[in-house]
Write a structure and sequence with these properties.
Blueprint lengths: L8 H15 L3 H8 L3 E6 L2 E5 L5 H23 L4 E5 L13 H4 L20 H12 L8 E5 L5 H15 L5 E5 H13 L4 H12 L3 E5 L8 H16 L3 E6 L11 H7 L3 E5 L4 H14 L6 H10 L4 H17 L7 H7 L1 H4 L9 H12 L3 H5 L5 H18 L3 H7 L6 H16 L6 H12 L3
Helix pairs in contact: 1-3, 5-6, 7-8, 7-9, 11-12, 11-13, 16-18, 16-21, 18-20, 19-20, 20-21
Bound molecules: adenosine-5'-diphosphate and magnesium ion.
The site of magnesium ion has 4 residues, from α6.
């Protein structure tokens, strides 16, 4: 990695100025703290910066306040994730103070759930952006933050990421993450001990002295009156004190029929974001990431197979790779073929999702409903009786599978994806005008019904 350029004074100053802007500090702070910082060396992933200070407390300040900004900006310049290590003036090369990770990692936060390991796609882009903004400035940007979406789509992952980020930036922050069940248990516990002043104050001490309170899966406290009331009071106390509250739920709070108006209005004070199931590209990216993480070598073809067949849930995507890994270990297979993967997942993909809509099923159903043969569809024939169902397949594959035009072209053995784009457009126009005499709208609707098994 080329770190040579950091020895160039002008360049180095430019970097420091950028960090100043990013961290939003004044020129005075710059003069006091940044001006005399010198690049020392990049060794592995550690980027050493020497200070002119000799007091250990100065390191604490630099670490708490600026380390993350240095890591981000320099990491971006280098195109590599780095750790910044500040050295005292009188220190030798070896790091004086390594920030122990245990101090950063609150034990309720899963160390794997970070922003770095979170794959961003259209389905979660807004939730991700807002989470980062809240993590940058807890209590100031959006309060409360309400994240909702189906099971296994990354809500917990995002919440933990926010927690890690805040603690990394400022380890003195008090961050608490609980599931709603933990919270309920604490409330019940305190009620059981006679609702004494002592037990109530213990509960309040735990939840009301924090900088950030995260409550996961709030849907399970709704309807539990005592818990709900305690939550409500906690919420008010924290909110009034400018402390950040982050809530997740499996659905939007507006959909809770029994939820009091007072909650609804409070949740609406902040920011509400949703996470929807990932599209094909995001599913592939998540699969690739996860395969790498668990050291599983699999082909694009297998990634494509899993990404095309499992659509609802990230947890299941990960589960399917674990299945493949278990399978190849069991049979001592080095590089699994598509058939190996299919075999490994045969109980997983089909019985769980017998209505899974795949490209093949779309082709089969369209052929059946339009009286066309599959061979003709896949061939180069261009007569209207074949082109029309082919276009319907393109349209449905794009609409229902969320795969790319390129992928559709590939599946139909076509080299050019622009024909897929125009095919989709034609069907869409037919549907919208519904006057081509072919009743395209009805046809597409009925095929969709068959495909979704209703
Ligand atoms: P939820 O809380 O919404 O039910 P989780 O946060 O527990 O879902 O996510 C389920 C699994 O999927 C976790 O292992 C998580 O790391 C992973 N996951 C979810 N979304 C993503 C994503 N966008 N990128 C990487 N991993 C993800
Ligand atoms: Mg969760």
């Amino acid at each position: 990695m080329n770190a040579e350029k950091f020895t160039n004074e002008e360049y180095w100053e430019e970097i420091k100025r950028k960090i100043q802007r990013e961290s939003n500090v004044s020129d005075i702070t710059y003069q006091l703290w940044f001006e005399n910082l010198e690049f020392q060396e990049l060794s592995g992933n550690t980027f050493y910066i020497r200070t002119e200070k000799e007091d250990e407390r100065a390191l604490g300040y630099l670490n708490n306040k600026f380390k993350l900004y240095f890591e981000t900006v320099i990491g971006e310049e280098l195109g590599q994730i780095i750790t910044v290590q500040f050295l005292l003036n009188n220190a030798d090369q070896t790091p004086v103070q390594v920030e122990p990770d245990t101090r950063i990692d609150n034990d309720t936060l899963n160390p794997d759930y970070t922003f770095e390991s979170f794959v961003v796609g259209k389905n979660n882009m807004m939730a991700h952006q807002v989470s980062v903004a809240v993590a940058e400035d807890p209590g100031k940007t959006w309060n409360p933050l309400f994240i909702y979406g189906g099971s296994g789509l990354g809500k917990t992952h995002l919440m933990h990421s926010i927690g890690h980020f805040i603690l990394k930036k400022d380890p003195s922050k008090k961050v608490i993450y609980v599931t709603s069940d933990d919270f309920t248990n604490d409330v019940i516990e305190s009620l059981r001990s006679g609702n004494s002043v002592a037990s109530m104050s213990k509960l309040r001490e735990k939840y009301r002295t924090v900088d950030v309170l995260m409550i996961d899966d709030i849907q399970s406290i709704i309807g539990k009156e005592a818990t709900q009331d305690e939550f409500f009071n906690t919420f008010n106390a924290l909110h009034a004190a400018g402390k950040q509250i982050i809530i997740s739920s499996d659905k939007n709070f507006k959909e809770f029929k029994t939820l009091d108006e007072r909650y609804i209005s409070r949740f609406a004070w902040g920011m509400v974001v949703d996470i929807t199931p990932p599209d094909y590209e995001t599913r592939s990216a998540i699969l690739k990431n996860f395969a790498e993480k668990i050291n599983l070598k699999i082909s694009e073809e297998i990634i494509d197979y899993v990404a095309s067949n499992m659509k609802s849930n990230v947890r299941e995507l990960e589960g399917s790779l674990k299945k493949i890994q278990g399978y190849i270990k069991l049979f001592n297979i080095k590089e699994p073929t598509l058939d190996d993967a299919k075999e490994a997942l045969k109980d997983y993909i089909y019985p769980l999702d017998s209505n899974t809509i795949t490209f093949d099923r779309i082709v089969d159903v369209v052929c059946q409903e339009c009286n066309a043969s599959k061979e003709a569809i896949m061939s180069n024939k261009r007569n209207a009786e074949i082109v029309y169902p082919r276009h319907i397949i393109m349209y449905l594959a794009y609409d229902m599978l969320g795969i790319t035009y390129q992928q559709i072209a590939h599946n139909l053995h076509r080299s050019d994806h622009t024909t897929v784009i125009s095919g989709c457009k034609k069907i869409e126009a037919d549907i919208n005008s519904n006057k081509s005499g072919k009743n395209t709208r009805e046809k597409v609707e009925s095929i969709k019904k068959i495909l979704s098994g209703s």
